[in-house]
Amino acid sequence: MARRPQDLEFLFRDAVCVVVNKPAGMIVHRGWANDEDDLMRTVRDAVGVHVYPAHRLDRGASGAVVFALDPGTAGVLGKAFAEARVEKRYLAL
After folding, report:
1. Residue 1 pLDDT greater than 60, yes or no
2. Is 26 helix (H, G, I), strand (E, B) or coil?
3. Labelling 8: which of 14, 29, 38, 86 has CA 20 to 30 A away?
């Protein structure tokens, strides 16, 4: 069942990025899987502009996912994640 943009939980938004709570079972973006919905397209539809994921979470994981709202910010955020300058915390239940 496709998720509607209004069903997303937005944790933060400013002029350059948006952070949403990804539900477990949903993919961040299309790849090998051809799911009916993915987080990237759902966020895009909700904010009305193209979005760029700064990182991913596995399908089975839930949690905060950061999306840039422009290519420049995407590069900065992607580099920060790649260089481990972003503190991440995981909780397994």
Report:
1. no
2. coil
3. 86
Contact 28, 54 (CB under 8 A): no
- The residue assigned the tokens 């972003």 is 86
| Rg, the chain, Cα only | 13
Supply the pLDDT for residue 44.
Answer: 94
| 21 has a pLDDT exceeding 90 | yes
Would residue 58 show up in a list of annotated catalytic residues for this protein?
yes
Catalytic residue among 37, 45, 58, 70: 58
Question: What is the pLDDT at residue 7?
Answer: 79
Task: Look up the pTM and report it.
Answer: 0.88
Distance from chain centroid for Cα 51: 9
Contact status, residue 36 vs residue 25, Cβ threshold 8 Å: no
Nearest residue to 54 (alpha-carbon basis) of 71, 78, 72: 78
Per-residue pLDDT tens digits for 67-80: 999 999 999 999 99
What are the counts of helices (DSSP H) followed by strands (DSSP E) for the chain? 2, 4
